[in-house]
Amino acid sequence: MTGAPLVVTDLRVEFSGFVAVGGVSFDAHPGEVRFLIGPNGAGKTTCIDAITGLTRGTGSAKLGGTELLGKQVHKIVRLGVGRTFQTASVFDELTVLQNLDIAAGLRRSPVSLLRARRGVDPSIERALEETGLAGELATPAGILSHGQKQWLEIAMLLVQDAKVLLLDEPVAGMSHDERTATGELLQRIAPKRTVLVVEHDMDFMRRFATRVTVLHQGKVLSQGAVAEVQADPRVQEVYLGTAGAATTAAMSAVPEPVAAMQKLTED
Ligand SMILES: Nc1ncnc2c1ncn2[C@@H]1O[C@H](COP(=O)(O)OP(=O)(O)OP(=O)(O)O)[C@@H](O)[C@H]1O
């Protein structure tokens, strides 16, 4: 395993006196597929916004020994913290390779796109392999499937050599097969990186999370292994009251991926 842990301590974010995040602490380590879940408005995206410098927060968010809070967005990116947004932010008119070139800062000319595969930057080639997009090099991003667009965003973070990937609802709107492929992708990239996933999809969380933090009204309600969290009566109460019986059923179902989680934590 490589890389430094992300340690968030007593994170607070206020919007004109409204406390969106009220003293949240959690950590995420390389090798983990760490989940942040909670009902609408719980403060999940705001936590990521504060960690990545998009929103001002107080408290602490450290990558290794380096404090991220108070730093400018581009400096946080340079420290190796990358994120995706709920809506994919790829350039639809550009090919997969051109999108990755921009992410890598290489600025290829159109002529270079005609070069043989060996002309592709090694970091881009690795990212294409890891995300399963190797066959889509010349495909305009706009005609990729919804899932492939999200994978392209993740590939863009990989070519930037992000050590921490903060992914905001990466499987929203995906088919079952795409969700499975995304979970497997996260497990593939996690051993060398810290992956933190904000998600609503409980089934996805149960299948692929190593540890989970549940937020509710800007505070940590529960955190731990999937089985511990879904057995927590406070979590069941919040999901009963806010997300309906379907979610509660999903939360209480037996977790499938225990073997996969054990493998990840052993690696
Ligand atoms: N820029 C802002 N100005 C004012 N209030 C905000 C702002 N951004 C978020 N909020 C509020 O902060 C609270 C937390 O929002 P946030 O988007 O972090 O929740 P979330 O858990 O990510 O929810 P969702 O799952 O719906 O995306 C919400 O009440 C939201 O309305």
TrEMBL record:
<dbReference type="GO" id="GO:0005886">
    <property type="term" value="C:plasma membrane"/>
</dbReference>
<dbReference type="Pfam" id="PF00005">
    <property type="entry name" value="ABC_tran"/>
</dbReference>
<dbReference type="InterPro" id="IPR003593">
    <property type="entry name" value="AAA+_ATPase"/>
</dbReference>
<dbReference type="InterPro" id="IPR017781">
    <property type="entry name" value="ABC_transptr_urea_ATP-bd_UrtD"/>
</dbReference>
<dbReference type="InterPro" id="IPR003439">
    <property type="entry name" value="ABC_transporter-like_ATP-bd"/>
</dbReference>
<dbReference type="GO" id="GO:0005524">
    <property type="term" value="F:ATP binding"/>
</dbReference>
<keyword id="KW-0067">ATP-binding</keyword>
<dbReference type="InterPro" id="IPR027417">
    <property type="entry name" value="P-loop_NTPase"/>
</dbReference>
<dbReference type="InterPro" id="IPR051120">
    <property type="entry name" value="ABC_AA/LPS_Transport"/>
</dbReference>
<keyword id="KW-0547">Nucleotide-binding</keyword>
<protein>
    <submittedName>
        <fullName>Urea ABC transporter ATP-binding protein</fullName>
    </submittedName>
</protein>
<dbReference type="GO" id="GO:0016887">
    <property type="term" value="F:ATP hydrolysis activity"/>
</dbReference>
<dbReference type="Pfam" id="PF12399">
    <property type="entry name" value="BCA_ABC_TP_C"/>
</dbReference>
<feature type="domain" description="ABC transporter">
    <location>
        <begin position="6"/>
        <end position="242"/>
    </location>
</feature>
<keyword id="KW-0813">Transport</keyword>
<dbReference type="InterPro" id="IPR032823">
    <property type="entry name" value="BCA_ABC_TP_C"/>
</dbReference>
